[in-house]
Amino acid sequence: MSRLRYIVIGAILVGGAAFWALTRPQQIDPDMFAGLISDPVRGEQVFLAAGCGSCHMAQGAQGDERLVLSGGQAFPTPFGTFVAPNISPDPVHGIGGWSVSALADAVIEGVSPEGRHYYPAFPWDSYRGMAPQDLVDLHGYLANLPPSPVASQPHDLPLPLQVRRGIGLWKLAFGRSGWIVPDDGLTDAEKRGRYLAEVLGHCGECHTPRNTLTGAPDADRWLGGGPDPSGRGRVPNITPGGLDWSEGEIVAYLTSGFTPDFDSAGGHMALVVANFAQLPDSDREAVAAYLKKVQAVR
Questions:
Q1: Residues 54 and 276 sit within 8 Å (Cβ to Cβ)
Q2: pTM score, two decimals?
Q3: Which of 13, 42, 163, 185 is the most core-located residue (most Cβ within 10 A)?
Q4: Direct distance between the N- and C-terminal alpha carbons of the chain, in angstroms, rounded to an integer
Q5: Is the dihedral of CA 196, 131, 281, 192 positive or negative?
Q6: DSSP result, 146-169
Q7: CA distance 166 to 232
Q8: Mapped to the 3 state alphabet, what secondary structure does 187-200 carry?
Q9: Residue 267: how many CB atoms within 10 A of its CB?
Q10: What is the pLDDT of residues 76-115, one digit of tens each?
């Protein structure tokens, strides 16, 4: 029995060490941004395409107040309620003291400046493909927004999910790598649309169904729609198997919010449209072209 006890204790120690090593938060190599100069004007386009303001503005903010990224919006899911933090340039309650590398750690690796994992409710799994120049430009744009002294609010999660170290295993098991739609035969415009949809616009975060146990997206049903995470209604299938709109109709929707049947975008999608309407026409056309290349989900 004494020998068995030592074996069990040894196995626990080895397993614990392996878990600690495998779940260690990863950080970006700062050299990735060496020599890159921020262009805040371009950064605004990245900000709009990525939808940063849509989640991080205060609930119900209108007009210029939408640029005060004080956070506080609650996002209910089957795993608990996540609350968007303050990402304004406030040096105490926001991200005013963050370097480009710190922002990259958060946006691309899902890691806080304190070395803690961010929950995948923050779409870092999509942002992983963000171009370094876009990240640098976004950093410059965010630094020029109005600061807010509002403290970030905690998430409302059950006890097991409050232990963030386990998110490292989620990243290993389910984290994305590479493109969903491969390069084969894509035009430059379709590749731009892919970047906007798969990375900056993170369309798959809402439009791709998820595993009910782990919350991992089902890549085989990319953009195939599914239950709304809030528990109310469904997110539509926007693959060619569920959306029969022409490219022109998709562009019109991303510009005006009106469908071919004269319905209008609602909920969070209305904010997405408001952002995309401010992008160049070519970007909306690129997304429409890309959606026609996505594998159809029936």
A1: no
A2: 0.93
A3: 42
A4: 58
A5: negative
A6: PP--PPPPPPB--GGGG-GGGHHH
A7: 28
A8: CHHHHHHHHHHHHH
A9: 12
A10: 999 999 999 999 999 999 999 999 999 999 999 999 999 9
